[in-house]
Amino acid sequence: MTSPSVLITGALTGIGRATAYAFAEAGARLMISGRREKAGRALLWELREKGVEAEFVRADVRDDDEVRKLVDAAVARFGRLDAAVNNAGTEGTVGPIVEQSAESYAATFDTNVLGTLLCMKHEVRIMLPQGSGSIVNLSSAMGKKGAAGAAIYAASKHAVEGLTKSVALEVASSGIRVNAVAPGPTNTDMIVRFTGDAAGADSLGKSLPAQRLGEADEIAPAIVFAAIGKAHFLTGHSISVDGAFTA
């Protein structure tokens, strides 16, 4: 069987980067993407040094034309698109609701929601003629329960959950599966920004049922499983990987 071709957005840091390495270990061919050219080329070099068949395309998921070109580049390089991981996201502006604005709302929703929508639009466009494919969207535990001071971020991840289930229903009979993975608080640069500093992130971790933050390489295997694992009847679901945060 040919190694699966996988597209990952937001692949340059954190969960996206760990996911790229997890797919590489599973033998996948990778199209990685992000907005920072230098970091993207560095990750591409690292993957190729390990013998991974990989390409990098800089793209902003908020731009319909850039997303279309990204997806088409993956197909041009590998001949098909077997799986896609829509990981690009932002925590936005953290703070009380009275401090939020139309601008802070748009900045978060344009990346987290519009970006996911545009990626799925073009991924499904390619997968429909194939009659197969798997899409995994990155949600969040906060998209399941909310969080004080993170209203816009939590709302955006609720939207990702709704998009996931709606598109899964739309394409269920076509051979395409659509799922989400919802990490709990994870030890990444984003959680440090979210809490203000490393001490705040550590304090948050100690407050969780597992008494620690998750690690990016603990989230990645769930993404790989949902995308290319032997889970052929799994679609329309959100898999929580959160150390009992939402239990």
Task: Give the topology.
Blueprint: E1 5-9, H1 14-25, E2 29-34, H2 37-49, E3 54-58, H3 64-78, E4 83-86, H4 102-130, E5 133-138, H5 142-145, H6 151-171, E6 176-183, H7 189-195, H8 198-207, H9 216-228, E7 238-241
Parallel strand pairs: 1-2, 1-4, 2-3, 4-5, 5-6, 6-7
Helix pairs in contact: 1-9, 3-4, 4-6, 7-8
* Total domain count: 1
Question: What is the name of the CATH class?
Answer: Alpha Beta
Helix content estimate? 40-55%
Q: Report the principal-axis shape.
A: globular
Profile the largest sheet: 7 strands, parallel
Spatially, the strands of the biggest sheet line up as 3-2-1-4-5-6-7
Run of helices and strands: EHEHEHEHEHHEHHHE
User: Distance between termini?
Assistant: 39 Å
Give your account of this protein's structure.
By secondary structure, the protein is an alpha/beta fold. The chain has one domain: Rossmann fold (3-Layer(aba) Sandwich). The chain is 50% helix and 15% strand. The protein contains 9 helices and 7 strands. It has a 7-stranded parallel sheet with strand order 3-2-1-4-5-6-7, sandwiched between helices. Helix 3 packs parallel to helix 4. The longest helix is centred in the middle third of the chain and has 29 residues. The N and C termini lie far apart (39 Å).
Brief description of this entry?
The protein is of the alpha/beta class.
Using brief descriptors, characterize the structure shown:
247 residues; alpha/beta; Rossmann fold; seven-stranded parallel beta sheet; 7 strands
